[in-house]
Amino acid sequence: MASRLADRWVLITGASAGFGAAAARAFAAEGARLLLGARRVDRLEAAAASARAAGSPEVHFHGLDVALTASVETFVRWTATVADRIDVLVNNAGGALGLEPVSEGRDEDWEGMMQSNALGILRMVRAVLPRMPRDAGATILNIGSIAARTPYENGAAYCAAKAAELAITKSLRLELCGSGIRVATLDPGMAETEFSVVRFKGDEERARKVYAGVKPLTPEDVAEAMVWMAGRPAHVCIDEMIIKPVDQAAIHKVHRRVVGG
Ligand SMILES: NC(=O)c1ccc[n+]([C@@H]2O[C@H](COP(=O)([O-])OP(=O)(O)OC[C@H]3O[C@@H](n4cnc5c(N)ncnc54)[C@H](OP(=O)(O)O)[C@@H]3O)[C@@H](O)[C@H]2O)c1
Fold it and tell me: Ligand 1: which atom is nearest the Cα of residue 115?
């Protein structure tokens, strides 16, 4: 049976790395057509090439900064020049900046996290909604985090930004009830991507320690869940999904295997 996602137009934000780049390949393998956005256009070009190799009939990419309304509007206007509609919007762009107590937090980091993880979703949805078909399986899939549900010390702003993502998802689900557009959140636990390198501002050694002795999720694990959620029959909405590594029972409960032990 052909995939329900074949020939669908799927827009993925933050497609230059991690979950977003893996999602581009996974939707491509279903035969979906892709619109990819992120700030690093050279990395988008590589993600687009992988998606074409994975089987997408059509892949386009364009620079996008979800923290800027003008950039979002330019991006969505550009989508209209290559695609007649947007069937699936994956709001994945985001991440964490810093891991400090509030007493040592930096405005720049707090504002960056709120902009990309929370306000970016509002901007993208406002701009894309007029281009989404009604009653035809259209999907808004927001990428949240278990941090939205269990705050942790030194992560106040990130946890708050992801809690905002969850609240936005729930509000949209109510606002769009009757439109035939489904709205969902996919909330991962620990996954190895560039997330920790970005959080620790390029300190790769510190980033590696986050995953020491643990078998974290891979970007492909998360992408597979995205494809499944967006590929359900048009009348089905998976409102919320939490996906964690087996080694992570809760945000603070991570089993670490002793290396060499
Ligand atoms: N890895 C984890 O453990 C984990 C767990 C739960 C949730 N998440 C969430 O999953 C999402 C993807 O993260 P990831 O783990 O794949 O991290 P990643 O490898 O660092 O990828 C983040 C992506 O977001 C893009 N991005 C960041 N700010 C942006 C902006 N202002 N405008 C446009 N694109 C932006 C980056 O692209 P550019 O830099 O090129 O713009 C990159 O493509 C994030 O929302 C993150 O919070 C991650």
Answer: 31
